[in-house]
Amino acid sequence: MIPFSGNPLDRASEKRTDAAWLAAKRSDSSSLILPMWKLNPFLLGPENAKGPLEAGFLRPGLAEKLVGPDACCVLLGLEKGNALFALDVSAAPDPASQGPLAGLGHFREMRSAAMSGGLPEKDIAILGQAKAMLDWHRRHGFCANCGAATALADAGYRRRCEACNTDHFPRTDPVVIMLATHTDPELGDACLVGRGKQFPRGMFSALAGFVEPGETIEEAVRRELMEEAGVKTGKVSYYATQPWPFPSSLMIGCFAEAENRDIVVDQNELAEAFWLEKSKARALIAGERTDGLFVPPAVAIAHHLIKAWAEG
Questions:
Q1: For 181-200, what is each residue's pLDDT tens digit?
Q2: CB 48 within 8 A of CB 108
Q3: What's the number of CA atoms in the CB half-sphere (13 Å) around residue 42?
Q4: Quick one: average pLDDT of 219-240?
Q5: What is the reported pTM?
Q6: Average pLDDT over residues 108-125
């Protein structure tokens, strides 16, 4: 399964406007609260512990001692009828080392938590949802229409501006991430990989870009490949999607059939790009360093695109 996907929660959208139900669930002993400090999820146990990790879902009343009643709290959903909430405790100074959470666990950066290999897949998906939601609230405290302060509503799935009566809802940005492929009778199969300027030297990945207004997924795939690498493509096929909470995107994984292997790199977008042979791709996916190259880890959908093509 692709990390951050497979969220098992019932989102309980029909309950979000029921203030009495929400208040009861916030104090119900069967409910669970996930503290998030500076968008880092709480994990149980010491930071250097070996073995499986466990998400720091706590019973109501413990994490709430760290912050005031106005701290952002979002309903994540229901699991077997029990409510799960995410609580922003960023106002507390280093809450894992002092106060009610001291000695219980630690806060870990979201990418590191997902890449550690110790968390269950369903927990990674839930933690990703929590990060994306609290991140959205941190960035939307003021109305984009009039500039007045907004207030949390609907269990965190709406912010209301009382000054101009505008409602604001959490957004997900669609991003196409695509692997262009080409088959040549003499050269064999190859896929197009590129290195963004922000990437570590030697790391190459599938190309990606935001879907623009008035554009289909297929059109975005073809446009981005042409803009970034000068590669003209025809047929586009869908592979899979991945919620990506950095800060809140939906990565739409696709394959695209290239017409040739001509490359014209846009230096504003990429540091370099090249056609990767299938045999080398298999080696890189297996973790080998070939010619100093490596591909993104399994936490990224780019890894799964390259793997599916290389092994397919």
A1: 999 999 999 999 999 999 99
A2: no
A3: 28
A4: 98
A5: 0.95
A6: 93
CATH topology of domain 173-311: Nucleoside Triphosphate Pyrophosphohydrolase (3.90.79)
Q: Phi and psi dihedrals of 260, rounded to 5?
A: -160, -175
Domain ranges in the chain are: 13-139, 141-171, 173-311
Report d(CA 218, CA 212) in Å as an integer: 12
Contacts of 141 (CB under 8 A, 6+ apart): 149, 150, 159
- Is residue 89 within 8 A of residue 36, CB to CB? The reply is yes
- Looking only at the bridges linking them, the beta strands covering 249-258 and 173-184 are parallel
Per-residue model confidence (pLDDT) at position 4: 98
Grouping H, G, I as helix, E, B as strand and the rest as coil, residue 57 is: coil
- The Cα-based distances of 77 to 15, 111, 265 in angstroms read 10, 22, 44
Residue whose structure tokens are 């290239």: 258
Question: What are the C-alpha distances in Å from 206 to residues 87, 267, 305?
Answer: 35, 16, 8
Report how far apart, in Å, the C-alpha atoms of 200 and of each of 1, 112, 245, 286 are: 26, 17, 21, 19
Structure confidence at residue 312 as a pLDDT band (50, 70, 90): confident
CA distance 302 to 255: 11
List Cα–Cα distances, 158 to 13, 75, 244, 247, in angstroms: 12, 12, 20, 17
Indicate if the pLDDT at residue 218 is higher than 90. yes
Q: Is the dihedral of CA 82, 127, 95, 136 positive or negative?
A: negative
Return d(Cα 169, Cα 18) in angstroms, integer.
18
Tokens found for residue 135: 């991140």
The pLDDT value recorded for residue 49 is 77
Q: What is the pLDDT of residues 250-290, one digit of tens each?
A: 999 999 999 999 999 999 999 999 999 999 999 999 988 88
The H or E element spanning position 106 is strand 105-107
